[in-house]
Design brief:
single chain, alpha/beta, globular, binds pyridoxal-5'-phosphate
């Protein structure tokens, strides 16, 4: 088999798509060091700069000293400690839901919760936005029932699909609230209405909205409470704006009990360790009061989009701290990525198969620790680039 692995890698290399892991040193101030060079960090998801916040680091260390390095077992055996239950209460309070469950990672939460949810009713019809994250696609592939993809944020398309399956025994709609690649938003008011009209359960991934958007940074769902009588499940991560690691699923009591009994990715995995819970606890203490940081982050996004538009670039539907702009060919996106690096800016070129051919792009991820001057530096670097 090793020869087959080598041949696969050769095929990837022939398309110039080889990826490799490289050490990066993250600085607390929105800079990173790669290959000995200091760069402005416009590629990480530490949107509020909490990953190196003293309170998160201290509480994480305190939890280790008090509760140990590991949790020893899965949640249903002996892995549930008082801090696990306390943090879940805190998450539910933050998200305004009856209950919440902690997961090891966001990837694991989506990959495990979605198939578990689909198992309750044989023949569940699942509707998902085409642009959802890999972890959701993985969950969908593992789910029983029929999956229908609707065009990105196209609710007329979704409405037609729902109408076509109004006689399915159950319906589940899955989307992100902020899309990881395009930085645009789902229309949660419209989705709430569709969930009522078609008796469908909503499952919303708030990985990129948690901490950044909505009242008290509680995500876009915080601004769009579920209508009376309808249900919603909200997942999100602690690994992005919340500066740490891990994920949550915030939900009604019945979903909590159901997942505890039915979700393999919760039952057959070791409970999250104390260090992770400590950082979560500190982040949940800080984030509700970070309105100034959120406003600054939003202003940086406006400034960057306005500058890119002046340079003639299309920033797609971005309205958030994620700002992509389309460059065109794969080679052009790679060249611009290298040019930015040479000019002290770390940003990610995104190309097929992640995005459609001909729409290769640079994706900027902003953070509240950047300044207006930093954005001007980035725009000057983009302006100085000559398209090959
Ligand atoms: C990052 C991300 C995840 C995965 O979260 P991790 O905690 O990093 O595993 C899930 N969904 C979306 C939309 C993401 O961007």
């Amino acid at each position: 088999m090793l020869d087959h692995f080598r041949r696969s890698l050769d095929t990837i290399a022939a398309k110039h798509r080889t990826r490799a892991l490289r050490a990066v040193e993250m600085r607390g101030d929105g800079r990173l060091v790669r290959d000995g060079r200091e760069l402005l960090d416009l590629s990480s998801n530490d949107y509020l700069g909490l990953a190196r916040h003293p309170l998160l680091m201290k509480r994480s260390a305190d939890y280790v000293h008090q509760y140990g390095a590991g949790s020893g077992a899965s949640r249903l055996i002996t892995g549930t400690s008082a801090p696990h239950l306390a943090i879940e209460q805190k998450i539910a309070g933050f998200k305004g839901t009856a209950a919440a469950l902690v997961f090891a990672t966001g990837w694991q939460a989506n990959a495990a919760a979605i198939p578990a949810l689909a198992k309750a009713v044989q023949g569940t019809a699942i509707f998902a936005d085409r642009l959802v994250h890999n972890s959701i696609h993985t969950g969908l592939r593992a789910a029983s029932g029929q999956v229908h993809f609707y065009d990105h944020n196209d609710y007329d398309h979704l409405t037609r699909l729902l109408a076509d399956h109004d006689n399915a025994p159950a319906r589940l709609i899955i989307t992100e609230s902020v899309f990881s690649m395009d930085g645009d938003r789902a229309d949660l008011a419209r989705l709430n209405q569709l969930s009522v009209d078609h008796d469908a359960l909503l499952y919303i991934d708030e990985a990129h909205a948690t901490g950044v958007l909505g009242a008290r940074g509680a995500g876009l769902t915080a601004d769009h409470p579920v209508p009376e009588g309808s249900g919603r499940i909200v997942m999100g991560t602690f690994s992005k704006a919340l500066g740490g690691f891990g994920a949550y699923v915030a939900c009604p009591d019945v979903v909590y009990d159901y997942l505890v009994n039915m979700c393999a990715g919760l039952i057959f995995t070791t409970a999250p360790p104390p260090a992770m819970l400590g950082a979560m606890d500190a982040a949940l203490e800080l984030v509700p009061d970070m309105n100034a940081e959120r406003a600054h982050l939003a202003a940086l996004g406006e400034q960057l989009r306005a500058g890119l538009h002046r340079l003639g670039y299309d920033t797609l539907g971005s309205t958030t701290q994620i700002v992509p702009f389309v460059v065109g060919t794969e080679a052009a996106a790679l060249a611009l990525g290298n040019h930015l690096m040479d000019n002290g800016v770390a940003a990610l070129p995104i190309r097929p198969p992640t995005v459609p051919k001909g729409t290769s792009r640079i994706r900027f991820a902003l953070r509240s620790t950047l300044t207006e001057q930093d954005i001007e530096t980035v725009l000057s670097a983009v302006a100085a680039w000559e398209k090959p």
